[in-house]
Each structure stands twice: as C-alpha cells, then as structure tokens.
C-alpha cells in the first residue's frame, strides 16, 4: 500500500511539475511577446513623436507665412484706400464747381437753353440772381427710361456754386414742409415735386455719401453734408464735425460708439 501510495504521489507530483513547467514556458513566451510588442509600441511612439514634431514645425512655418500674407494684404488694402481717396480728390477737383439738381422732370424736346433756364429759375426762387455767363455747361445725366434724370450744372467758379447751395439751404430752413424748394417754385407744370440741390459728387464719393447718410440714420447723427466734395458727420448741434474720408472712418466710428 505504501509503495502504491508513493507511486501515485510521484506520478501526481510529476504531473504538477509538468503543468507548472508548461505554464512557466507559456508565461516566458507571453513575456517575450509583450517585450516585442513594447519595443514595437516604443518604436511607433517615436515615429508618432517625430511626425508630431514635423507637423508642428510645418504648422509654425505656415502660421508665420499666414501672418506675413495678412500683413501684406492689409498693406495692399491701405494702399488701395489711399489710391481711391487720391482718385476721388482728383475727380472732385475736376468737378469742384458743379452742382446736381434732382427731381426736376424734363420738358419735351429739352435743350441746353431749357436747362440753363431751369438753373436760373432755381436761383431766382432762392433769391439769387444767376447770369447765363456764370454757367459753363448744363446737361442731364444718363438714366433708365421713365426716370427723372438729374441735371448737372457747371459754373465758372466754385464761389458761385457755393452761393447757390447756401441759398438753397437757407431757403429750405425758412420754408418748411411743402414750402421747401419744389417744382412749383421754379414754374414747372404738373404735381408739386421737391427739388434737391447739392454738390455734384463722383460715383465713389456718391456711394460713400450714401453710406454716411445711412450711418447717420442708424446711429442718430443729426447732420450729414458735403462741402467742396468732403463728407462730414455731426452728432448734435455744436458738436465737432467728423470728416468721412473712407468706409474705414465709418467702421471706426461704429467701434467707438459700441465700446
């Protein structure tokens, strides 16, 4: 019995030893495989770090290039704005003695003499005598059929133009509502129409003047006007006038108001 028990124990121990050896071998194999995986992961991480470093350097380089391009773009915009203002000034100088009269219907077979007569009647309506010799040229701007095209009148000097504009403004101040300058005042047939007299502005200045008037409405500026081609804004009576040189002036004003 002892021999049999001893034999059984030896067989059992041998079996346990074999199982442990098998498990140990598998453990060693798994550890070796993990080591290989770890080496691969470390290698992969190194490649990733290298790629990240490369991408970061590329991003930094691109960011610097974008900053340079943005700076150059802003310089170009500033240069364009400067050129636009110079062109506007040149255009205004060539038309410094011109006025624009709007909302006066054309007569049948209208001639230059008819337009000259209308200018004289506008002057007479606001107590300003205008001689034909003081007018250099009169004509209507082109426009769509069926629309009332503005009349352009060029005087022999700026002083006469300014006198007429000032007289019209004073007349409108003393004659409110329907009494303001209109087609009845200058003897035009048909319904009463308000007549508007202002400096003639080139297209670029006209667009800027429109935007300035819209800005004045939105931000409750009481005055918006032009003098010798320059556009001005004034918040209230007695406030310092603001010279509107470009759209950037309006943007800066908007930022100052919103702050």
Q: Approximately what portion of the residues adopt beta-strand conformation?
A: 5-15%
Number of strands: 7
State the strand order across the main sheet. Answer: 2-3-1-4
- Low-confidence stretches are none
Give a short account of the largest sheet.
4 strands, antiparallel
In the CATH hierarchy, what is the class of the domain at 96-200?
Answer: Alpha Beta
Helix share, percent: 55-70%
Q: Which structural category fits the helices and strands?
A: alpha+beta
- Element-by-element helix/strand order: HEHEEHEHEEEH
CATH architecture of the domain at 96-200: 2-Layer Sandwich
CATH-level-4 superfamily name of the domain at 96-200: L1 transposable element, RRM domain
Reported by name, the CATH topology of the domain at 96-200 is: Alpha-Beta Plaits
Work out the radius of gyration.
43 Å
Q: What is the average per-residue confidence, as pLDDT, rounded to a whole number?
A: 85
What does this structure look like?
The chain has 259 residues and is of the alpha+beta class. It has a domain at 96-200: Alpha-Beta Plaits, CATH 3.30.70. The chain is 59% helix and 13% strand. The chain is built from five helices and seven strands; from the N terminus they run αβαββαβαβββα. It has helices at 2-94, 112-125, 158-174, 203-218, 247-258; strands spanning 98-102, 135-140, 151-155, 196-199, 223-227, 230-234, 242-244. The strands form two sheets. It has a four-stranded antiparallel sheet with strand order 2-3-1-4, with helices on one face. Strand 6 and strand 7 form a beta hairpin. The protein is rod-shaped. It starts with a helix and ends with a helix. The mean pLDDT is 85.
């Amino acid at each position: 019995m002892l021999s049999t028990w001893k034999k059984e124990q030896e067989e059992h121990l041998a079996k346990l030893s074999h199982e442990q050896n098998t498990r140990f071998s598998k453990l060693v194999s798994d550890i070796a495989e993990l080591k290989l995986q770890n080496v691969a992961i470390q290698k992969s991480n190194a490649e990733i770090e290298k790629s990240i470093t490369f991408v970061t350097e590329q991003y930094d380089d691109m960011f610097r290039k974008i900053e340079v391009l943005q700076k150059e773009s802003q310089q170009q915009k500033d240069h364009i704005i400067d050129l636009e203002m110079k062109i506007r000034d040149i255009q205004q100088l060539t038309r410094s003695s011109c006025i624009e009269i709007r909302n006066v219907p054309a007569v049948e077979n209208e001639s230059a003499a008819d337009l000259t007569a209308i200018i004289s009647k506008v002057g007479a309506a606001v107590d300003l005598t205008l001689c034909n010799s003081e007018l250099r040229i009169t004509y209507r701007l082109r426009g769509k059929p069926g629309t009332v095209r503005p009349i352009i009148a060029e005087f022999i000097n700026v002083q006469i133009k300014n006198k007429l504009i000032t007289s019209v403004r004073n007349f409108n101040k003393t004659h409110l509502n329907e009494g303001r300058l209109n087609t009845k005042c200058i003897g035009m047939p048909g319904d009463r129409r308000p007549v508007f007299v202002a400096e003639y502005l080139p297209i670029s200045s006209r667009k800027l003047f429109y935007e300035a008037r819209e800005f004045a409405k939105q931000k409750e500026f009481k005055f918006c006007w032009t003098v010798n081609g320059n556009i001005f804004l004034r918040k209230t009576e007695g406030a310092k006038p603001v010279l509107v040189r470009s759209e950037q002036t309006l943007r800066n004003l908007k930022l100052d108001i919103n702050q």
